[in-house]
Amino acid sequence: MSIKENYQKIRSEIGDNVMIIVAVKGRTKEEIEEVIDAGAQDLGENYVQEAESIYESLGDKVGKVRWHMIGHLQKNKINKALQIFDVIQTIDSKGIALALNERAKRIGKVVPVYIEMNIGDEMTKSGVKGEYEVVEGLAKEISKMEFLRLEGLMAMEPQFDNPQDSISCFKKAKDIFERIGALNLPNVDMKELSMGMSGSYKIAIQEGSNMVRLGSAIFGAR
Predict the structure, then answer these.
(1) CA-to-CA distance for 8 and 185, rounded, in angstroms?
(2) What's the CATH number for 3-219?
(3) Which pLDDT score is estimated for 97?
(4) Inter-CA distances, 56 with 6, 31, 60, 63, 126, Å
(5) What is the pTM of this model?
(6) H-helix or E-strand spanning residue 169
(7) I need a labelling partner for 194 at 20 to 30 A (CA). Which of 42, 88, 145, 204 fits?
């Protein structure tokens, strides 16, 4: 099927309560234009430099979508990221949050952010340790930052051969999400649980995700 057909099929299957972030890392301008024309409203990019190139190439289509940072954010890329992204999903330390808050303050922009959890505690992945106390501590720090608004959690799960093996990770992420929301912290509105990718999104939704990040399920293999 075409990119348009893939997107619209998934969109119709999962219901309007789940947001699709189309992961566009490594995709061409033409592929991205096709998915926007198919109705995609949210794009996710892993790299600031690649996002900048895409952003500049899309012309008037840029304004039709929201841009989500879904890769690790480096401090030296914050200024450029603030020009491009509407949401930063990958806050993984107090240091990066403080730096982002300070740069956002300079331009008077309040930035929606999510805490990234390395829910399987894998050495090769970024994100805070997938434990409630760790996430709670960072959430409380972010709640004090005037120009950041904590709106969700982003879970990075291990890559399993059998997607069913992700269930315990997803349950853990959902539990942490609900517990953080129940704290009723100032400047925190826990709306989004960004969880599930192309191989696991159906199970993630069953376990409570309301935002999935899909690349190959829409575009096909690279």
Answers:
(1) 37
(2) 3.20.20.10
(3) 98
(4) 26, 15, 10, 11, 28
(5) 0.95
(6) helix 167-182
(7) 145
* 3-state secondary structure at position 196: coil
CA neighbours closer than 13 Å in the CB half-sphere of residue 76: 1
| Residue with tokens 């997607």, as numbered in its chain | 163
Domain boundaries, the chain: 3-219
Q: How many helices (H) and strands (E) does the chain have?
A: 9, 9
Residues 6+ apart with CB under 8 A from 149: 110, 111, 112, 113, 187, 188, 189
CA angle 116, 183, 81 (to 5 degrees): 30
pLDDT digits (tens, 9 = 90+) for 169-191: 999 999 999 999 999 999 999 99
Which two three-digit tokens encode residue 179? 């517990």
Q: What whole-number distance in Å separates Cα of residue 107 and Cα of residue 35?
A: 31
For residue 160, what pLDDT is reported? 75
- State the Cα–Cα distance between residues 67 and 207, nearest whole angstrom: 25
Q: pLDDT digits over 52-106, tens only?
A: 999 899 988 988 999 999 999 999 999 999 999 999 999 999 999 999 999 999 9
* Rounded Cα distance, 26 and 37, in Å: 19
